[in-house]
Amino acid sequence: MDTWHIFLGSILLAIPLILLLRGRKGGRLRRGATLADRPALPSLKLLGENNNTITRASYGPVWRLLRRNLVSETLHPSRVRLFAPARSWVRRVLAEKLRDESSSGGAAVVETFQYAMFCLLVLMCFGERLDEATVRAIAAAQRELLIYRSRKMAIFSFLPSVTKHLYRDRLQTVHAMQRRKKDLFVPLINARREYRKLGGEPKKESAFEHSYVDALLDIKLPEEGNRPLTDDEMINLCSEFLDAGTDTTSTGLQWIMAELVKNPAIQEKLYKEISATKGDDQDEVSEEDVHKMPYLKAVVLEGLRKHPPAHFVLPHKAAADMEIGGYLIPKGATMNFMVAEMSRDEREWEKPTEFVPERFLPGGAGEAVDVTGNREIKMMPFGVGRRICAGLGIAMLHLEYFVANMVREFEWQEVAGEEVDFAEKNEFTVVMKKPLRPRLVLKTTISTRLLKRDLKIAQAASSGITPRGTSLQFTTTSREGWRNRVKPHNNTKEDVIVITPIASQKFSLKDTRTTKI
Ligand code: HEM
To answer: What's the CA gap between 387 and 107, in Å, rounded?
Structure first.
């Protein structure tokens, strides 16, 4: 989704939306399709790509088909529910990695957030839980291409017939990157073709019932003789899905957690809401729980208000001449909106530089704010109108679910020398210039709960396996082969406990037992 940065190289008419709204509040402009188109991207042809992605497609039938396909086939609430086990798995992966990080002082959490979001989106995209090396290879391929395109491709917007010769080496580099990505994606798409052909048989533990690729395989383009998507088009759509849903969410998580580190009283208040909604004996804050937590939602909204991951939306194109706040916008002009300026505007928000989730609670000034912009627009972290983020619902769910579970599991503390700094840096999204490095302290209630459970398992396993009183270190390995140092709480029947005596006890390998429970 390199178009995020293309606005820098194109004619940018950045207009504070407040101005726009003052002129047109509730007017035709907001409801109509006047700004629903996207400007063309001249470099696409040189890259051998077309406009058949949701973000790039012109406002028309192809865009409608592709967008409807994503929203109603993969991101429809009934489909999103099918991925609940995947989210739960990623939550455990995230918690385990954070625990590892936490033992080494200030934890570098950003990379962990990014990896976790990739695990989840890759699974939703290809319908399979992939190993860490493959997920990381996909993330690296996506990132290198995204960065290279955003930094080096803008030049081809100017006189492409000349620049393609002058900068041939850049085109060669980007083609090599595309090939690397193709090598990773095509086998996964083919595996899905095969899986569908066999009607989902044999049942693979790691395969999910539905994936974004499945929905793409069903598409026929009516405008083009009802042909299916080509592999290259599928790869671009998968790429778009991954780019759109990973960095945006991990950046959002980083800013929200940074605010919670900086504001321990808010973190405590959130923790109390979580504890009151969910009992200590439960494994996780479930998705049903998060819907019952108004303060959690307020924290996430306040995070998105103060730190929208994208400070601009994707470029829009004016479909007709229009006048906004006294400015003439000619037909065909590229427009963008200053998302961050808007939600930090002192005329609209009281003390906008402060982090005050309470403003979104009943009685607060932001109580009636609607992020979809259907009533009025005071903030638009997901854009508004027909090109509003197609993943808004699932993005909010991911933010709420992961924030709640991370706060439940750890106390997030500021570390001396690694103080939270809210300076910004422009990457694909607007990230923290000095990455967040908090101290993560396991919540005592959870540690106690684990201790008791550990003890039970140690006793159950001690007969005939280890001498009484031996301290045990154990990991759990699920049937699919992924390992957790701490057993998942709610899945005891399915797990195999691998009991590994601590090295100092001088046990040989044969003393290690696996026990089904
Ligand atoms: C916190 C997370 C997210 C944020 C802040 C965010 C923000 C945005 C923004 C600002 C836009 C541009 C809107 C415009 O041009 O007016 C956008 C577009 C889009 N987003 Fe998101 N997004 C997030 C997560 C996701 C997720 C999880 C997905 C899908 C899995 C997704 C899919 C899309 C798509 C397909 C578009 C293009 C819409 C179109 O052109 O019709 N986004 N998003």
So the answer is: 37
Task: Indicate the pTM of the whole model.
Answer: 0.83
The answer to whether 242 and 125 have CB atoms below 8 angstroms apart is yes
Q: Give me ligand 1 centre to Cα 54, in Å.
A: 10
Determine which helix (DSSP H) or strand (DSSP E) holds 59, and give its type and residue range.
none
Pairs from 31-37 (Cβ < 8 Å, separation ≥ 24): 31/385, 33/59, 33/319, 33/386, 34/318, 34/319, 34/320, 34/322, 35/316, 35/317, 35/318, 35/319, 35/335, 35/385, 35/387, 36/316, 36/319, 36/385, 36/386, 36/387, 37/316, 37/317, 37/318, 37/319
Mutation to probe ligand 1, out of 29, 68, 118, 389 (largest number of atoms < 8 A from CB): 389
Ligand 1 atom nearest the C-alpha of 251 is 1
Along the 517 residues of the chain, how does pLDDT read in single tens digits?
Answer: 444 443 433 334 444 443 443 334 434 444 468 889 999 887 888 888 889 999 999 999 999 999 999 999 999 999 999 999 999 999 999 998 998 877 666 678 999 999 999 999 999 999 999 999 999 999 999 999 999 998 898 898 888 889 999 999 999 999 999 999 999 999 999 999 998 888 767 667 777 888 999 999 999 999 899 999 999 999 999 999 999 999 999 999 999 999 999 999 999 999 999 999 976 667 789 999 999 999 999 999 999 999 999 999 999 999 999 888 888 999 999 999 999 999 999 999 999 999 999 999 999 988 889 899 888 889 999 999 999 999 999 999 999 999 999 999 999 999 988 999 999 999 889 999 999 999 998 875 433 333 334 434 433 333 333 333 333 444 433 333 333 343 333 333 333 333 333 333 333 333 333 333 3
The verdict on whether residue 238 carries a ligand-binding annotation is: no
Atom of ligand 1 nearest to the CA of 386: 41
Tokens 């990379």 locate to: 111
Phi–psi pair at 35, nearest 5 degrees: -115, 25
**Alpha helices, DSSP H only, in 353-435?**
392-409
Q: Give CA–CA dist 187/189, Å, rounded.
A: 5
Q: Whose CA is nearest to atom 9 of ligand 1?
A: 382
Residues 469 and 454: their CA atoms lie apart, in Å, by: 13
Q: How far is CA 215 from the centre of its chain?
A: 20
Helical (H) or strand (E) element with 501: strand 496-501
Which residue of 51, 238, 239, 248 sits with most ligand 1 atoms within 8 Å of its CB, as the best mutation to test the pocket? 248
Query: Using CA atoms, how far apart are residues 6 and 28, in angstroms rounded to an integer?
Result: 27
Ligand 1: residues with CB < 6 A are: 54-55, 67, 241, 244-245, 248-249, 252, 309-310, 313-314, 381-383, 387-391, 394-395
**Which ligand 1 atom is at minimum distance from the Cα of 252?**
1
Q: Of the residues 382, 388, 396, which should be mutated to test ligand 1's pocket, given the most ligand atoms within 8 Å of the CB?
A: 382
Which value, to the nearest 10 degrees, does the dihedral of the CA atoms of residues 374, 377, 382, 385 take? 50
- Cα dihedral 333, 339, 344, 347 sign: positive
